[in-house]
TrEMBL record:
<dbReference type="InterPro" id="IPR050221">
    <property type="entry name" value="26S_Proteasome_ATPase"/>
</dbReference>
<dbReference type="InterPro" id="IPR012340">
    <property type="entry name" value="NA-bd_OB-fold"/>
</dbReference>
<keyword id="KW-0647">Proteasome</keyword>
<dbReference type="Pfam" id="PF00004">
    <property type="entry name" value="AAA"/>
</dbReference>
<feature type="coiled-coil region">
    <location>
        <begin position="18"/>
        <end position="59"/>
    </location>
</feature>
<dbReference type="GO" id="GO:0005524">
    <property type="term" value="F:ATP binding"/>
</dbReference>
<dbReference type="InterPro" id="IPR003959">
    <property type="entry name" value="ATPase_AAA_core"/>
</dbReference>
<dbReference type="InterPro" id="IPR027417">
    <property type="entry name" value="P-loop_NTPase"/>
</dbReference>
<keyword id="KW-0963">Cytoplasm</keyword>
<keyword id="KW-0175">Coiled coil</keyword>
<dbReference type="GO" id="GO:0016887">
    <property type="term" value="F:ATP hydrolysis activity"/>
</dbReference>
<dbReference type="InterPro" id="IPR032501">
    <property type="entry name" value="Prot_ATP_ID_OB_2nd"/>
</dbReference>
<keyword id="KW-0547">Nucleotide-binding</keyword>
<dbReference type="InterPro" id="IPR003593">
    <property type="entry name" value="AAA+_ATPase"/>
</dbReference>
<feature type="domain" description="AAA+ ATPase">
    <location>
        <begin position="179"/>
        <end position="279"/>
    </location>
</feature>
<protein>
    <recommendedName>
        <fullName>AAA+ ATPase domain-containing protein</fullName>
    </recommendedName>
</protein>
<dbReference type="Pfam" id="PF16450">
    <property type="entry name" value="Prot_ATP_ID_OB_C"/>
</dbReference>
Amino acid sequence: MDSSGVQVSSENNSALLKGYYEAKLDELESKIRDKSENFRRLEAQRNEINSKVRNLREELQLLQEPGSYVGEVVKIMGKKKVLVKVHPEGKYVVDLDKNIDINKVSATARVALRNDTYTLHKILPSKVDPLVSLMRVEKVPDSTYEMIGGLEKQIKEIKEVIELPIKHPELFESLGIAQPKGVILYGPPGTGKTLLARAVAHHTDCTFIRVSGSELVQKYIGEGSRMVRELFVMAREHAPSIIFMDEIDSIGGSRMNSSGGGSGDSEVQRTMLELLNQLDGFEPTKNIKVRRRASG
């Protein structure tokens, strides 16, 4: 072969070698990507397993600890002591554990006390009846003001009484005006009272709690008023909140003396008095708005 033939053969070999090594490099890079992805997946699984192990260890430690007394905070006594009521033993002035922030302890809060030293070592969640918890509406209604016809005046008043204090509370504070605590909607059935409440819940970014007045009428003495208290406890925990009380006339009868009416009427009256106490009592309700609906 001449020199030109040898040159052509050498160029062909170089091209073949170059293609071979490029294919090998692509194959190796693909394997590296697969290995890296597999490594990240295994690392994520390891972190998840470690998190579960830590949680299980914490639960095991809690299970191995001796039981605690459950009490209710009555009053804050300085920076490191609180007055706690333990049923049925009585009231005690107790110390705080080092991991408890005094600013997070409030009156009526449920707390756990160590059974040997009575030291407050944990703040417990509020005890709320499951029936009351179900009154909280998780999904915001999709009703809007545009769906309501012929109630422009009522919509304007609702916005001033309910929406404005929630969205701009600083306006009332700067003027020294107390915020409205609630409204009552009355009228014949089918005039848009419930639709108004659904629209307010849609346009305000707050917790919406719906309760029927008949649900607060209980058979046993004190059950209705207890449900009202727990209803407002839940509303304060998830403030700002709107409580929509449907069929308020079922518990909103006129007051009577102790000699009039039966035990059922007395229980309904106690429930209504507890509702009035929650609205006008010592506990502040500026972040809670109550809307009542009655058929007239």
